[in-house]
Amino acid sequence: MIKPAGRLVSYVLACALVCCASQALWAQADTVQSLAKRSGDANFASDVIKAAGSAANLAEAIRILESLAPLAKGAGATTVYSQLAVFLEMESRWNEASLAWESSARSSAASSAYSLTQAAVCALYDGDPLRAAKLVDEAKALGTGDAVHLSLISAYASFLSGDRPGSLKGALAVVSSGDSRYEPSALVLASAASEGAERDGYLSRLKTRYPRLYENAGLPLALTMHLLAASGISLETATPLSSAPLAQSAALSAQPASVPA
Length: 261
Known about the structure:
Elements: H1 4-36, H2 44-53, H3 58-68, H4 74-90, H5 94-105, H6 113-125, H7 129-142, H8 147-160, H9 164-176, H10 183-193, H11 196-209, H12 211-214, H13 221-227, H14 235-238
Helix pairs in contact: 1-3, 2-3, 2-4, 3-4, 4-5, 5-6, 6-7, 6-8, 7-8, 8-9, 8-10, 9-10, 10-11
């Protein structure tokens, strides 16, 4: 049983917490309102990014970007929506991240194949292969994206849609491309989409060239996809034993610092 004095202390602490939370929200609202008034400034997008970077936590940064992204224009909007998408990915809010990447892609006169590709990757993580496939087709039509990466995403979408023969064909096309950035992902997918001796063959190649990935090949495919993402795989893991270090880790989703057009 809590004594009266204890209840008083609890009440005071609760009031203090509410007060602190309210002050944080007011400060955030002031920041958003102040920046919104300058939405026509040339430095608006960079100022928004700085404000988000100075936020007390990730949730606050996301709220700032969500509030101000619709006010940004052109290349500035592409930058703000891209940053929002990355933060949403960090919280595994895949559907919202996919939509943010798509908004980034459509913010300027020429759609960004990179942003559409990222939107497709997030759609896969969200368990929406049909949306992922649609975004891949749109990115391919632009003719400026990473064709092998898009083919890999399409193969994963086929697998998650239940089309194992189609996903296996796509995965093997990626392996045959000779692009070692994506070979590990393709071999994992090929092993998941095949059976028997054929599957053993893909696993053997994976074990020989990428031993650390081989250890994870039996995990659920969605988890394996996360393990293959750029943020969670090292160059050592992704590099074939017989080749020189790669300039880029094997990845289903790459996240460079800048967003290409």
